[in-house]
């Protein structure tokens, strides 16, 4: 019909569209004789009337709002303007003239503002789609009219899609839907700012088949009546703040095909046992609190193609029957606690994506696991405990693009791989395994490779860095921490042909010089730490990445200076220069640094007074172990985001600025130990104090403990030992229930240790050292009994974690607390304080009265030292209950009576000193007691029996004079170590079997991920760790006498009979506790 043709051409002329991208209206041409009903996007009835306009994806930008031609199509039934760009103009009111319109689709077309009331007059509508996938500049909204008014006349409506339309503050919108739209089948209201629980009126929509409510704040439980919808096929409630148990009966709705409950962290439930063959195609429960095991009945869901149970709390094995799902395409079970082996997926021929990472899966990989999976493109099995070799067939999967097997126990050598079958691989991550031998040359021939990460294995040999020239698409290269030697050539023309990397990690690659990175324009991450690079840091390094460098780690080299002139880019977020030989003045930090470590160098002079102006965004700052002098600049007080400040091991002096603890409420660790600070501890701790570690030891601080320290309710570690503080017992901390380590050693504290009105405090205390003070009076049995951190329940296990402070929370980083303890007669610094390590040292005070029996309740205690006091009475029998006790020193007191027979049950005891008391009787006979020398009992004239020369029926020898209890120094040569139960003088079987041989590098290994760039950060230091399980490699104990210099573990060593050498147990497995002997002088 000519009139319809004319209208179409008028309509086209009204529109503003991009003819380059148009595929329909651009071809509407009046010069072509062709029937206009045959034009693309036009549909007509048998009479030639236009009844449909499908104009989606036509790049229309305007002209519709005043198009009279459009509104004259009186027979029009379907109108589709989806996926155009109308630039937030309002929906035209003239659409109400299209009285026969039953289908209106304006989705994702860029309309904005209030939805016109005229839409509510379009009574013939069956489908209305005003949804959007993305928030527009001016989003659509329903205010006037509101939802109720919009739909009240649309009684024939069966499909309503209003995703991302603002429908907030609508009252009882559920009931409005139920009453006005009785025929509704599909309802989608995603991200509409709706709130409130699901109304019980919803079941009135008996025809409902599709319900999508994702992204609304329902904040309620899931009602049971969802199971009553007989036609329900799709139910998605993602990110709705749902809570409580999910009704299991909903899983049994036989018509249900898609169920998405993801991102409801408080929603709990279990996967049911499916009782009948269901219709499920997609089940998504990720980021919920679902738990329990998976049933074998999953296999009776023959159409199931997508299973996403990631980031839940599922346990148990992955059922082998899951491999019978022949339609399975996507399987994600990551970040759970699944155990056992990986099922075979040979029957799941359509499988394209599998992620089982971060579980506890074990066993080996076989070629049969993925046999015949020609569509498999994504495999992530990282962070498990898989062992054995990597099957060659895995690399030969024809569609494989991403293969991630990191952080397992995979071993053996990799053979060369067929390039033809592996040509699609773009991501290969085999890091943190036990792979060995030479790196396959074929890795450097994967032309599409984008990410190559082989770090933390045992690959050996020499790699020429120029080999990566062939990998044109490579953006990430990580070869760190192998046994490799990476060689670089100085020919800059070769480096100009390198791919444009974004991340380069060559830590511990035996580098002797800087690779030439001057042509790298996209590089944001560089780690060259733990190499053998000497000389100056070249000035060009600050210019790589076109000034966008965000991470630079040059630590653990032999660098001496920064080549001048240099310009450190302000956007450098992580700068780590620790453990080099830098000297002179401190370089000014980058303006936006978050992590800054200049520790363990030879920087001298004073800290720049304006350094705080450059650390406004810094979270971690360490200048420890340098030769810095002068006072702490007050500008630090403006660094209000600091979480860790470590200035220890310098020659800093003066007072501690009060604003440091007053202004920085985020500060979790303040370490000023081993300096020359004077004055008092500032009494200015904020009421919002977040401090967890306060380390002020080895200074010249005087005065009293400030009362405002009581504001630090989260305090876990307080070490103010080796100062001149003159105060009573710190009862101001009596309510600090988090306190785990308290060290007051070698100060001028006095008085009793009881706090008035308090019988119990510090339930988590595990280390207390108040030795070498002037405390007196008796000990409170009830207070000691309240230290539950030193107790093990009957069913408790030793959890091998460490005291630490987590900072940069998104990165799994923590600052490792340290403390000095006296064990076996030597001062040693525990670089890692195990939460199971417990110690009490009350020595060299003037405590009186009897030793409380309640010490015997502390059944996880490892060290007990009450020596050089004035305790009287007998040794409590209850000490025999301390079955984990490794060191007991009660010497130089006034104890009487016999040595309790119960002490012979202390089979882990390697240090015993009962000398210089008034003990009498026969020394008990027991396996462990037979190993101690006579020095353990010296000065007790009433004792007899082995190992003393006095038999129990002979005359007692002349009494030896005991040293005065007031003496502050005493001869630890009197403390001789036992020869060891059952194996002579060589070894002590440690009470805690978690030691591994000393390895100076691997013991301090840490991997850090910086969120902005996905940085992998490796740090060799005792104070920074990554919160993940890092398993060291077993090596033979060939260190010899280096152990006597401090390389030994508290639980795995003992001193020989002459106290000259530490003897190490070669079978000991101590990778979680490291000790070293401290010098009492600053470096």
Automatic annotation (TrEMBL):
<keyword id="KW-0677">Repeat</keyword>
<protein>
    <recommendedName>
        <fullName>Leucine-rich repeat-containing N-terminal plant-type domain-containing protein</fullName>
    </recommendedName>
</protein>
<keyword id="KW-0472">Membrane</keyword>
<feature type="transmembrane region" description="Helical">
    <location>
        <begin position="972"/>
        <end position="994"/>
    </location>
</feature>
<dbReference type="Pfam" id="PF00560">
    <property type="entry name" value="LRR_1"/>
</dbReference>
<dbReference type="InterPro" id="IPR001611">
    <property type="entry name" value="Leu-rich_rpt"/>
</dbReference>
<keyword id="KW-0812">Transmembrane</keyword>
<dbReference type="InterPro" id="IPR013210">
    <property type="entry name" value="LRR_N_plant-typ"/>
</dbReference>
<dbReference type="InterPro" id="IPR032675">
    <property type="entry name" value="LRR_dom_sf"/>
</dbReference>
<keyword id="KW-0732">Signal</keyword>
<dbReference type="Pfam" id="PF13855">
    <property type="entry name" value="LRR_8"/>
</dbReference>
<keyword id="KW-0675">Receptor</keyword>
<keyword id="KW-0433">Leucine-rich repeat</keyword>
<dbReference type="InterPro" id="IPR003591">
    <property type="entry name" value="Leu-rich_rpt_typical-subtyp"/>
</dbReference>
<keyword id="KW-1133">Transmembrane helix</keyword>
<feature type="domain" description="Leucine-rich repeat-containing N-terminal plant-type">
    <location>
        <begin position="2"/>
        <end position="45"/>
    </location>
</feature>
<dbReference type="Pfam" id="PF08263">
    <property type="entry name" value="LRRNT_2"/>
</dbReference>
<keyword id="KW-0325">Glycoprotein</keyword>
């Amino acid at each position: 019909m000519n009139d319809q043709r004319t209208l179409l051409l008028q309509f086209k002329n009204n529109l503003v569209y991009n003819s380059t991208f148009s595929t329909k209206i651009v071809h509407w041409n009046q010069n072509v004789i062709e029937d206009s009903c045959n034009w693309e996007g036009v549909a007509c009835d048998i009479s030639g009337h236009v009844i449909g306009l499908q104009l989606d994806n036509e790049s229309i930008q305007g002209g519709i709002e005043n198009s009279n031609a459009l509104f004259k199509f009186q027979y029009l039934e379907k109108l589709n303007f989806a996926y155009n760009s109308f630039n937030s103009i309002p929906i035209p009111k003239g659409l109400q003239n299209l009285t026969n319109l039953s289908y209106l689709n304006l989705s994702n077309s860029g309309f904005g503002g209030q939805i016109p009331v005229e839409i509510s007059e379009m009574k013939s509508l069956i489908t209305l789609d005003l949804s959007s996938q993305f928030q527009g500049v001016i989003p659509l909204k329903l205010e006037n009219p509101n939802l109720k008014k919009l739909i009240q006349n649309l009684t024939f409506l069966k499909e309503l899609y209003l995703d991302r339309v603002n429908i907030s503050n609508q009252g009882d919108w559920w009931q409005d839907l139920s009453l006005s739209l009785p025929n509704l089948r599909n309802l989608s209201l995603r991200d509409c700012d709706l709130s409130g629980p699901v109304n019980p009126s919803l079941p009135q929509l008996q025809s409902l088949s599709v319900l999508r409510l994702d992204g609304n704040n329902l904040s309620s439980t899931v009602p049971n009546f969802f199971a009553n919808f007989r036609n329900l096929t799709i139910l998605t409630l993602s990110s709705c703040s749902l809570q409580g148990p999910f009704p299991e009966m909903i899983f049994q709705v036989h018509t249900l095909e898609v169920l998405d409950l993801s991102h409801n962290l408080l929603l709990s439930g279990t996967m049911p046992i499916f009782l009948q063959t269901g219709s499920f195609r997609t089940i998504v429960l990720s980021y919920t609190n679902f738990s329990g095991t998976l049933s074998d009945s999953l296999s009776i869901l023959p159409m199931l193609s997508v299973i996403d149970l990631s980031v839940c709390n599922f346990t148990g094995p992955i059922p082998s029957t899951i491999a019978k799902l022949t339609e399975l395409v996507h399987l994600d079970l990551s970040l759970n606690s699944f155990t056992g082996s990986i099922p075979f997926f040979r029957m799941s021929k359509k499988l394209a994506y599998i992620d089982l990472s971060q579980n506890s899966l074990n066993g080996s990989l076989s070629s049969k696991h993925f046999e015949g999976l020609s569509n498999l493109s994504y495999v992530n099995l990282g962070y498990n405990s898989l062992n054995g070799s990597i099957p060659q067939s895995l690399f030969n999967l024809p569609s494989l693009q991403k293969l991630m097997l990191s952080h397992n126990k995979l071993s053996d050598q990799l053979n060369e791989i067929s390039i033809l079958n592996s040509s699609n691989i773009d991501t290969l991550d085999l890091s943190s395994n036990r792979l060995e031998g030479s790196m396959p040359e074929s890795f450097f021939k994967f032309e599409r490779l984008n990410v190559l990460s082989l770090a933390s294995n045992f690959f050996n040999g020499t790699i020429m860095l120029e080999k990566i020239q062939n990998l044109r698409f490579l953006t990430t290269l990580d070869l760190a921490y192998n046994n490799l030697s990476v060689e670089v050539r100085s020919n800059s023309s070769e480096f100009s042909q390198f791919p444009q990397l974004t991340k380069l990690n060559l830590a511990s690659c035996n580098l002797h010089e800087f690779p030439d990175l001057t042509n790298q324009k996209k590089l944001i991450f560089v780690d060259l730490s733990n190499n053998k690079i000497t000389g100056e840091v070249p000035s060009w390094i600050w210019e790589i990445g076109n000034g966008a460098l965000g991470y630079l780690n040059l630590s653990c080299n032999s660098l001496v200076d920064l080549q001048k002139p240099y310009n450190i880019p302000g956007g450098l977020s992580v700068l780590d220069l620790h453990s080099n030989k830098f000297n002179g003045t401190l370089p000014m930090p980058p303006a936006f640094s978050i992590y800054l470590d200049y520790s363990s160098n030879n920087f001298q002079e004073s800290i720049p007074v304006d350094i705080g102006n450059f650390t406004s965004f810094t979270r971690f700052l360490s200048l420890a172990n340098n030769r810095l002098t002068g006072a702490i600049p007050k500008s630090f007080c403006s660094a209000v985001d600091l979480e860790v400040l470590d200035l220890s091991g310098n020659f800093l002096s003066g007072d501690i600025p009060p604003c440091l603890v007053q202004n920085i409420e985020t500060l979790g660790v303040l370490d000023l130990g081993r300096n020359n600070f004077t004055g008092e501890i500032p009494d200015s701790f904020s009421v919002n104090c977040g401090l967890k570690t306060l380390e002020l030891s080895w200074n010249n601080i005087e005065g009293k403990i400030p009362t405002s320290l009581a504001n630090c309710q989260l305090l876990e570690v307080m070490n103010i030992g080796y100062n001149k503080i003159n105060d009573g017992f710190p009862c101001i901390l009596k309510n600090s229930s988090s306190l785990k380590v308290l060290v007051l050693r070698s100060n001028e504290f006095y008085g009793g240790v009881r706090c008035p009105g308090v019988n119990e405090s510090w339930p988590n205390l595990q280390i207390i050292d108040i030795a070498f003070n002037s405390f007196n009076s008796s000990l409170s049995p009830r207070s000691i009994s309240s230290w539950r951190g030193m107790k093990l329940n009957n069913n408790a296990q030793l959890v091998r974690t460490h005291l630490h402070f987590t900072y940069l929370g998104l990165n799994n980083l923590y600052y490792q607390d340290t403390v000095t303890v006296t064990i076996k007669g030597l001062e040693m610094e525990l670089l890692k304080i195990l939460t199971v390590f417990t110690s009490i040292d009350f020595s060299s005070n003037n405590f009186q009265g009897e030793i409380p029996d309640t010490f015997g309740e502390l059944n996880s205690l490892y060290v007990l030292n009450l020596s050089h006091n004035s305790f009287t009475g007998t040794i409590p029998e209850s000490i025999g209950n301390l079955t984990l006790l490794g060191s007991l020193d009660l010497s130089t007191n006034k104890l009487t009576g016999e040595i309790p027979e119960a002490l012979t049950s202390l089979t882990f005891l390697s240090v015993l000193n009962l000398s210089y008391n008034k003990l009498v009787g026969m020394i008990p006979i027991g396996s462990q007691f037979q190993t101690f020398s006579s020095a353990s009992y010296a000065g007790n004239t009433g004792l007899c029996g082995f190992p003393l020369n006095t038999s129990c029926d002979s005359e007692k020898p002349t009494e030896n004079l005991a040293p005065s209890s007031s003496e502050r120094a005493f001869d630890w040569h009197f403390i001789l170590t036992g020869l060891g139960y059952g194996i002579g003088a060589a070894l002590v079987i440690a009470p805690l079997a978690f030691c591994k041989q000393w390895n100076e590098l691997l013991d301090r290994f840490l991997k850090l991920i910086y969120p902005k760039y996905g940085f992998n950060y490796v740090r060799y230091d005792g104070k920074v760790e990554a919160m993940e399980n890092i398993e060291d490699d077993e090596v033979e104990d060939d260190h010899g006498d280096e152990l006597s210099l401090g390389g030994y573990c508290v639980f795995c060593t003992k001193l020989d009979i002459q106290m000259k050498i530490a003897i190490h147990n070669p079978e000991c497995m101590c990778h979680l506790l490291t000790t070293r002997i401290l010098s009492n002088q600053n470096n």
